[in-house]
Automatic annotation (TrEMBL):
Domain Methyltransferase type, chain residue ranges per copy: 56-134
Stated name of the protein: SAM-binding motif-containing protein
Lineage: Bacteria, Pseudomonadati, Pseudomonadota, Gammaproteobacteria, Alteromonadales
Organism expressing this protein natively: Alishewanella agri BL06
One matching Pfam family: Methyltransf_12
InterPro entries on file: Methyltransf_12, SAM-dependent_MTases_sf
């Protein structure tokens, strides 16, 4: 089932990139402002670390790496994406950066201090909710495996306004995922649901 989902995700985001280019809409976000807000929540994982390594799952055209350069972080970055077109775009944009690499895969290939995933759990297509949740939990297990200090991810929230919810999107239960992360990965888990978007971010810090 995961292989089928990965294929769907790859095709979908390659099409978005072809349609909108290397922009927030090219990775299915409404605009740069909300994209930046999400990045700020994810970076709460890192705290005050000025030097770290990070895996970016679903890196797209490299927008999160571009953001990292604005916060003056000394980072060893690896972007991972299932869309070959996205990876090629990111490699082209940042070919001059010797602290960043981008790979076409659905899991990291090295252990990093941290891992992040932004937006990759939102579009479930026509998959059953049970299958999509299983895909999310499988991905979280991989993030845990390849993260030495912790990981963070975001999801659309089940507390969204009913009239705005769409059938092809997945609205996760933040309480369930909080409990799952607490019991499966670490005692140190934070749920961020206070930044005025119809979503939440979960941060998992390892002891």
């Amino acid at each position: 089932m995961n292989n089928e989902i990965v294929s769907q995700v790859s095709e979908y985001y390659s099409e978005k990139l072809n349609q909108y280019g290397e922009t927030p809409r090219g990775v299915d976000w409404n605009g740069a402002e909300s994209q930046l807000l999400r990045f700020k929540q994810l970076m709460r994982l890192v705290n005050d670390d000025k030097s770290f390594s990070i895996n970016d799952i679903g890196c797209g055209y490299g927008a999160f790496y571009e953001y990292l350069s604005t916060v003056n972080a000394a980072v060893e970055y690896c972007g991972i994406d299932v869309s070959a077109d996205m990876v090629k775009a990111a490699q082209r944009r940042f070919s001059h950066c010797n602290n960043a690499r981008f790979i076409h895969a659905n899991t990291p290939d090295v252990l990093a201090d941290y891992s992040v995933a932004s937006g990759i759990f939102n579009v479930k297509f026509a998959n059953k909710e049970t299958d999509w949740l299983a895909y999310i939990l499988s991905t979280l297990s991989q993030m845990d495996k390849f993260s030495a200090k912790g990981f963070a991810f975001n999801c659309l929230t089940a507390f969204s306004d009913t009239e705005r919810m769409k059938d092809n999107l997945y609205y996760a239960d933040p309480c369930y995922l909080f409990q799952y992360c607490k019991t499966q990965f670490s005692r140190n888990v934070a749920l961020l649901h206070d930044y005025n978007l119809f979503e939440f971010t979960i941060i998992v810090r390892k002891s």
